[in-house]
Design brief:
about 400 residues, alpha+beta, FAD/NAD(P)-binding domain, D-Amino Acid Oxidase, Chain A, domain 2, 2 domains, eight-stranded mixed β-sheet, about 35% helix, binds flavin-adenine dinucleotide
């Protein structure tokens, strides 16, 4: 699957951080992680911490899937508003999912300190503003639901947003204390480097072509013909899971991102806040630690990569125009633009769990706008399952739910 256009900013900025060998000899391990993006690297980190002998493979180069294209806003706010998620799955479950995302941000904060990361992890506030008057009632309802669930939120009137954030187009919005951003591409390589010193084996350009269960063990065949014998497999294969799983469980879309030239005036004004709005599709933005503004949005409801990439120039222009409309006090000069495939689920929740067609295996598929925070949640879930413990989130993230 073609997951992204050329030139996602993170690959250009970071270059080749590390190289890894491919695998052409037979191996044995307790757990095989398939997929070397942000999800696989987080899961591998947890597995090494828990003492499992672990191998991670990726068919591409490491972090060259969706994790190279991500805008990496880390939000506790799921694509489905809390009050709507309550209607869909009940108050207890909905609040638990929101709190899990919030906890993930704190877990990632500790983790980046633990590995002495230089991936620019930064805690930020999050401003979710109404682009239309008709959205105000829904947002106010959402603010109350979040307050009720114990989140630190504040309703800001139109005038307050205009004064504080220089956004004249809003009709009011929710300011949340919890949020963060990071360079996920760099973080993947840092996590792998940290854990390779602790025994993790990493192979890229190594594709899993089949997995069969024999005498209670998974026998995984690779494109090189070599095999890996593993007690368990954790599939962290992102949107390419749609090629493995028969039933339809996610809608694949196309999404677009642009990043500005270095602009200190602009980024100093917004360095402490993630911003997104209620336009459909929504517009979202955040600053980077190298003083650029990163903007995403303009989603299209198809995933054909050729069609997606053909629209890149037009979409980049529209994102720039949207920025100027919402932030008339600031200049924005595009430096890079890219497109990526994106997955949306019916409830905004991920698929993390077992699948009936894959024995002795778990999937960790963080979909939607919270893909990365969900992947962090998956770390504890996988650890619990390997210890034969139940995890209360399992039923909300299950296949066939
Ligand atoms: C433009 C854009 C903006 C986004 N913005 C945000 C955001 O702001 N916040 C957020 O949380 N999320 C965001 N996301 C989503 C986020 O990027 C994804 O959730 C995340 O990157 C998924 O990581 P992953 O490791 O699961 O998948 P990937 O990074 O795609 O990694 C999966 C890996 O599995 C490998 N693989 C697949 N099949 C095999 C096989 N058979 N054998 C070996 N290897 C295999 C692939 O090569 C790939 O490298 C965004 C995505 C895009 C495209």
């Amino acid at each position: 699957m073609d997951l992204k256009s050329n030139e996602p900013f993170w690959m250009v900025k970071n270059g080749l951080i590390n190289t890894y060998p491919s695998l052409d000899e037979d191996k044995t391990c307790e757990v095989l992680v398939v997929g070397g993006g942000i999800t696989g690297s987080l899961i591998a980190h947890q597995l090494i911490k828990e003492g499992y002998s672990t191998i991670l493979i990726d068919q591409r180069e490491i972090a060259n899937g969706s994790s190279s294209a991500t805008t990496s806003m880390l939000q506790y706010e799921i694509d489905t508003p809390l009050y709507q998620l309550i209607e869909m799955i009940g108050k207890k479950g909905a609040e638990m999912c929101y709190h899990a995302c919030s906890d993930s941000i704190n877990i990632l904060s500790d983790l980046t300190k633990e590995i002495k990361s230089k991936a620019g992890f930064k805690k930020k506030k999050s401003l979710y503003f109404a682009s239309f008057k008709k959205d105000v009632d829904g947002l106010k309802k959402e603010c109350i639901a979040r307050e009720d669930a114990g989140f630190a939120v504040q309703w800001l009137e139109k005038e307050e947003i205009e004064e504080k954030y220089k956004i004249p187009t809003s009709y009011g919005g929710i300011l949340s204390d919890q949020g963060a951003s990071v360079d996920a591409f760099r973080l993947v390589h840092e996590l792998l480097a940290f854990n390779m010193k602790r025994g993790l084996q990493v192979y890229d350009k190594t594709k899993m072509t089949s997995a069969k269960l024999s005498k209670g063990k998974n026998k995984i065949t690779l494109d090189s013909g070599a095999t890996i014998n593993a007690d368990k497999i954790v599939y962290c294969v992102g949107y390419e899971s749609t090629n493995m799983i028969k039933e339809k469980f996610v809608d694949l879309l196309s999404t677009y991102a642009i990043i500005s030239e270095v602009n200190e005036d602009l980024t100093n004004a917004y360095k402490d806040v993630l911003i997104w709005n209620t336009s459909d599709p929504y517009l979202y933005m955040r600053t980077t630690d190298d003083h650029r503004m990163l903007i995403g949005g303009e989603d299209e409801e198809f995933s054909n990569p050729r069609k997606r990439d053909e629209m890149l120039h037009k979409k980049a222009t529209k994102l720039t125009q949207a920025f100027h409309k919402n932030f008339p006090d600031f200049k924005f000069k595009e430096d890079f633009a890219w497109a990526g495939t994106f997955g949306a689920t019916k409830d905004g929740l991920p698929y993390i769990g077992v699948h009936k067609d894959f024995k002795n295996a778990y999937f960790v598929l963080g979909f939607g706008g919270n893909g990365i925070t969900f992947s962090v949640t998956g770390m504890q879930m996988v650890a619990d399952w390997l210890h034969q413990k139940k995890n209360p989130l399992s039923k909300y993230f299950a296949f066939g739910r």
